[in-house]
């Protein structure tokens, strides 16, 4: 069994598509119109055959209260791996991304959390090399 | 709403700082101001091996806030926490330390370990 698809709920699919591609740098894998909404997935440029991230409409009434409560406590909806978290932090801040938590050294890993502007907090993490 | 009830109560600072986890929370907020509950919990687990639930940490934060030792502010849609040392001044005023006294004694943290 493999994890081939996971997702985040977004308040506006087109806005999310721009954020996840233009700002974060992911690549569109699928963009299939489905009436009012679309089946939109993105993948990492570094791993185009890897896990797809679904940008799912947040229309279900349970989603917004759920996300509001998570965001209030600073809990991210997804976590992405990066090689150089300081460089990513700098790059994203320059693009206007708002960080709730700057890169924080937690021992074996350095983590940061930013707002995806579509309803979610997203964590990025750099695993420290064992020395 | 339990949290709100708690905030209305007066919690004295001696009770607030009598707990090791709450002291560690203050240490981490001194290290970086303006943390979310998520960041604090991550720091407590990863740096201090404190595996308390988020609810438990949230209750500790309520006690510290009621004692005036932390303040909270909404930034965007997240609730962030700040250390406020002002109430600790009362301790120094109650038991003033003479200027020439050796103040290099360690805290109690080493004894408790």
How would you describe this structure in keywords?
heterodimer, A: 131 residues, alpha/beta, 2,3-Dihydroxybiphenyl 1,2-Dioxygenase, domain 1, four-stranded mixed sheet, 3 helices, globular, B: 113 residues, mainly alpha, Arc Repressor Mutant, subunit A, two-stranded antiparallel ribbon, 7 helices, 51% helix, 11% strand, disordered N terminus
What does this structure look like?
The complex is a heterodimer of chains A (131) and B (113). By secondary structure, chain A is of the alpha/beta class. Chain A has one domain (5-127): 2,3-Dihydroxybiphenyl 1,2-Dioxygenase, domain 1. Chain A has helices at residues 13-23, 63-72, 85-94, and strands at residues 5-10, 27-34, 37-43, 52-57, 78-81, 99-105, 109-115, 121-127. In chain A, the strands form 2 sheets. In chain A, strands 1-4-3-2 form a 4-stranded mixed β-sheet, with helices on one face. In chain A, 31% of the residues are buried. The model of chain A has no long low-confidence stretch (mean pLDDT 96). By secondary structure, chain B is mainly alpha-helical. Chain B has one domain (2-91): Orthogonal Bundle (Arc Repressor Mutant, subunit A). Chain B is built from 7 helices and 2 strands. In chain B, a hairpin with a 2-residue loop joins strand 1 and strand 2 (78-83). Chain B is globular, with a radius of gyration of 15 Å. The model of chain B is unreliable at 1-8 (pLDDT under 50). Classes of the chains: A alpha/beta (131), B mainly alpha (113). Chains A and B meet through helix 2, strand 6 and strand 7 of A and helix 4 and strand 2 of B.
